[in-house]
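re: that chain from earlier
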Amino acid sequence: MALTTTIGLILAFIVIVGSISTQGGLGRVMMFIDLGSFILVMGATIASLIVNYTFKELWGAIKAVRFAFASKPQPPEEIIDILVKMAVKARKGGFISLRDEDFEGKFQLLNLGIGLLSDGTDPEVTREILETASATETNQFAAHERIWRDMAVYGPMFGMLGTLVGLVLMLRGLSDPASIGPAMSLALVTTFYGIVIAGVLCLPIAGKIHNYSERMIMIRMLIIEGLLSIQDGDNSQIVEERLRAYLPKDTTRSAQKKE
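^ sequence. v structure.
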């Protein structure tokens, strides 16, 4: 589990609540709790997302939240080790022997490539299929990220709408001093909710999805190049050196020290 996400959310909560409490104790926090303001911001934001996206796309974005709390993908060095072992196995038993490898859906691209190699697919066709599958997965991550970034735009925007609503109510109730306070509270709290939702929740989640996607792009690239190298008949040493060339120098050195 990604501790940084949990720690960040807890820290943001402590900072916000703590800063409010310094102005008069924890009782001041209750002044920022307004059900009507929350409904206005969240309800209007969700409604806008429904207008803009399909339910399938929205459900995919909700499920993508797991990437904000998931641990990092398998390190590239471990993927390289897997592919090197596959190269050794392919040299000894042929491509058909790779059918025994099953990663239980953890690396769908790897399973797809194994099937193509064992079926004797042309290398150019193999590359085309694998790159298309990789691009499709990358586009899915990008779609999830875009929804959360859109939500970060809608939140503050509808917070400002709540501010306008509160100001209108306040101006209309100037003859009644008792109504000015609640109206001004609505005007300011909605903006507060919009900014908090965008800055503490939506943008960080979008960033986490983006970072996870970037790491997976590297993993998928290693898988594609490794499988094609195996298909070309390269021995395990060449496969390893070819794949390690994609890693940063400091990463490669640290991996070699461990060996």
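The chain has a mean pLDDT of 84.
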